[in-house]
Amino acid sequence: MAKKRIFEGLKIADFTWLGAGPIAVKFMANMGATVIHIESYTRPDICRVSPPYKDWKPGINRSAFFAIFNDSKYGITLNLRMPQAQKVARKIINEWADVVADAHLPGIMEKFGLDKETLRKDKPELIHIATALQGKTGPYSTMPGHGMVGVSLGGLTQITGWPDRDPTVPFGALTDFLTFPHMITALIAALIYKRKTGKGQYIELSQLECSAQFLAPPIMDYMINGRVLGRLGNSSAYAAPHGVYRCKGEGEKWCAIAVSSDDEWRNFCHVIGNPEWTRDPEFATFMGRKEKENELNGFVEEWTINYTPQEVMRKMQKAGVPAGVVASGEDLVADPQLNHRRTHVVLEHPEIGPHFYQAPPYRFSKTPHKLTMPAPCLGQHNEYVLKDILGMSDDEIADLVVAGALE
Amino acid sequence: MEEKEKREGLLSDYRILDLTDHKGVYCGKVLADLGADVIKVEKPGGDATRNIGPFYKDISDPERSLYWWAYNTSKRGITLNIETADGKEIFQRLVKTADVVVESSPRGYMDSLGLGYPALSEINPSIIMTSISPFGQTGPYKNWKADDLVGWAMAGQAYVTGDDDRPPCQISFPHCYLVTGCHAASATLAAIYYRELSGEGQRVDVSMQESVLWTTLVLVQFWDMMKLNLFRAGSRRSMGTALFRLAFPCKDGHVGFLIAGGQLASISMPPLIKWMAEEKMLGAFEDKKDWGPKDWTQKVDAMALTQEIVDAWEDSIIKFFANKTKAEIYEKAREEGMIIYPVSTTKDLAENAQLKDRDFYVEVEHPELGKAITYLGSPYKMTVAPWRISRRAPQIGEHNQEIYEVELGLSKDEMRLLKEAGVI
User: Fold this and answer.
1) Residues of B in contact with A325 (CB under 8 A)
2) ipTM at complex level
């Protein structure tokens, strides 16, 4: 018998797009929830029209950017500017959904007659969870945005890079990825509460406020001590050597090493064969190594350059010293640990073919997650959802098609 | 007032025993601020997380770590040496009334003490045990060590971060284990939800490498679908396209902006070009070469743009921003709906008008200082039983008496003996 999944029977109407919202709902789907993802041809998710595309050929159903955020969901299209489509959306919510998720700027759901007051008046037990870059209220909330600039607003760009250089921008839509686990947390907490009390609620998340959680100590440091955090390269207040070192091989071959205790230092020295410089009393203490960090890093690299990143990592880890290869996309695909844990999951997409999706970063001993199906092509499940889930007749559906409500 | 009333919140029915160090500290905070009774179990003398700076008024003291303060709000704290026979026995008694144990020790450590999941579930069959570790409890790297930088590297972030003429780089306030803690909190809640349905507890295994991998989307997919390794290029980025700049220097710092193409460009470029035209600083946008889009509201295909074109446009924008401050550019962006944001410093975040308008920052009483300290507020606004910091982080052994004497019924004499034996 197949094992039970945690949220089997839970129904989510997913009006989200871009990063944070879709991923949060995808995780719920992987843990068993049934999800209807609502989109429109008239305003496709920007992720659908962004690379990576299979074999470099663009196409609205060919981007993995959209696909990996939206597996295990049914997908339908509704042009919510049309009253007929709004009626279908309301039907999904009122007759079917336990949870509504949205990730639109303030005013958009309102324009569609799907504002939180109306929804919860019709269905008080509904849980409505919403996210926007700067939240749904406040003077800057209506600005359009996305995580690739959110990472700058959120303070992460400013503190990434080298003290003598301009800031460098952390990869990707980082604020989205720091938000979605908060979104899942809030949603499940609300579900637990609803099970006990029957009460629904409205939950709202600002991606700026979620990502700021990961800068709480330096922000408090400014408020209390007046210190503004700068860029520190790879140096650390509690470890030396602590850096990324060039290794043997063509191209970008690097390994990170972090030595944060005397034991690790002794083991590190042993692995590299206790060369002359390691016996210099100035390197014997952590304070000494911090003092001469640049020189130290030079010595470390004199050793690492003779070995591949994999060799450096394995030699160090075998001796109990934290070290890890600087993995490229290609390396991640081949990573033995990720592969052992089935982190990458291949699903066969109707247009892309078989390609990599990604499992949640945790495993439950009794209720394993499952990626049940690839991301939907635009409008792929219109008929299934309208007919089999909502019980609409062929005539009603035909009327929607003719009116253009399913575009 | 009853402890539960003090904590009234979504999760006030649940007790969590939090054995984590810095690798799991955020998990318990998330649950505690939602109302759970989180008891931080520290070794006598205090957890090493207390040594992480910065410190209140720069006085390095385990009771003044801002890191400890920020990530242990709403928790109670006891000291207990679970490596001693007496400590183990006390811990087992606590497990009987707990719902969850969260831990981040090296794999096998809890089992070696006889406190692994099988042993704990014998004491309390519905217990949930959440384990946070660098690589998870299974697989070839399950016993390996990783600090934040190593996780950052092995999940793909380092490869794409930093200047191209220097080593790959981290964020200067690393958050790999913090984001892992957030995932651990959501997974723990999922397990609680399941227990409410089934009565069954279970083991939850959270991997830091995989948690960070959920921040490096879509590196794997670029390789899978386009055989392309995205790479680091300072403040510029290629997504199978020319390199596009994501941070532009301005008069007093930088602003975040991306020309991109498609829908994003159609939102920001028309008002930006209009603004540049008003100040007669169109630069390359004035050029009548045939590569210039005639109408930015038509979707521009970013994949078709050459590096020469992108560089020329970006140089013109850099010149235009050179005499404008972050605040001026941000205000104009707000008025015109352009996707341009300041590159915020921690000072900017402390003073951010949007955060203030939303009452993001909150005051938390520190009775030992006789004053309130400003903390970051909630990551979520909820209409029912909202998030709140119910107390500042615990001092070392602050709730020993409350928990050991009042709850477990240990006598003063027993407390003294346990203290002298180094158990509490």
Assistant:
1) 153-154
2) 0.98
